[in-house]
Sequence to fold (272 residues):
Amino acid sequence: MNTIKLNNGKLIPQLGLGVYQTPEGEATVNAVKWALEAGYRHIDAAKVYGNEAEVGKGMLESGVPREEIFLTTKLWNDDVRAGRAKEAFAESLKSLQTDYVDLYLIHWPVDGFEKAWSDLEELYEAGKIKAIGLSNFHKEHIERIEKIAHIKPAVNQVESHPYMNNQALIDLSKSYGMEVEVWSPLGGTGGNLLSDQTLQALATKYGKSPAQIVLRWDIQREVIVIPKSTHKERIEVNMDVFDFELTSEDMDIINQLDRGERVGPDPDNFDF
Ligand SMILES: NC(=O)c1ccc[n+]([C@@H]2O[C@H](COP(=O)([O-])OP(=O)(O)OC[C@H]3O[C@@H](n4cnc5c(N)ncnc54)[C@H](OP(=O)(O)O)[C@@H]3O)[C@@H](O)[C@H]2O)c1
Fold:
């Protein structure tokens, strides 16, 4: 598994399991266990996904030592607005049955995010979080954090896939010293990205699946990628992307699929 070094020196596995819309209960416990059995060492959770308890259970039942797993969770918008980052963080730790997380993100740039950032900095200084970062932050939001931050954000987690590669925001985030994690890398639940004819043709050419082609493109463009699946075989094949390489011409072909088509909300215009 490739790793990427964050701006505080901490290493993050470049590919992890996402659990958005993974149903609470056994589905999440199993997805986490299957991923860890398959060699994943990175889980991307969030309080609002409603399945932190099952993520924690899956991690414990896997038998993989806690310190080998890079665990991310996120501070939800209501908690940012209410100024209760520290309380929400404590609730997440309890649900996850752990005493620290590797990465804690402000999920969306809602009112109160500067105060939340200061609270995250205190939790970081206290050693309860190994790295702190942002999600869905655009230029103006990043600049507001830069003005008040004592600790630079390590990460920006943003929507990105071949139909909306978001490369300008990725480049901008990196110019601030952040690594970028990409969400909905496979085009999200219910999307049609993986039936794209260009991706299908590349899949045939490399003897891989369209999902593997997209995930390999992410590895080669040096972003961190967190595909979600509830199926054991898919969880396994999604990690099997380290034994082949796309040519630069094929990387370009995928770059050109961009058509600015989001599958999720626009951080400049959302209402939750
Ligand atoms: N920060 C944010 O605001 C934010 C927003 C959205 C997502 N995220 C994070 O990013 C993660 C990934 O994004 P996402 O869950 O929206 O979507 P995604 O990973 O792009 O796509 C998930 C969909 O692809 C299917 N799939 C997975 N592997 C496949 C394969 N090999 N072949 C065919 N289909 C496959 C899954 O189906 P099955 O499950 O049925 O296999 C599911 O329907 C989330 O789980 C979450 O951790 C963060």
User: Anything to note?
Assistant: Residues 3-191+217-229 form a domain with the TIM Barrel fold (CATH 3.20.20.100). The pocket of NAP is lined by residues 18-21, 44, 107, 135-136, 157, 183-189, 194, 209, 211, 226-231, 234, 237-238, 264 (CB under 6 Å). Residues 203 and 210 are 5 Å apart (CA to CA).
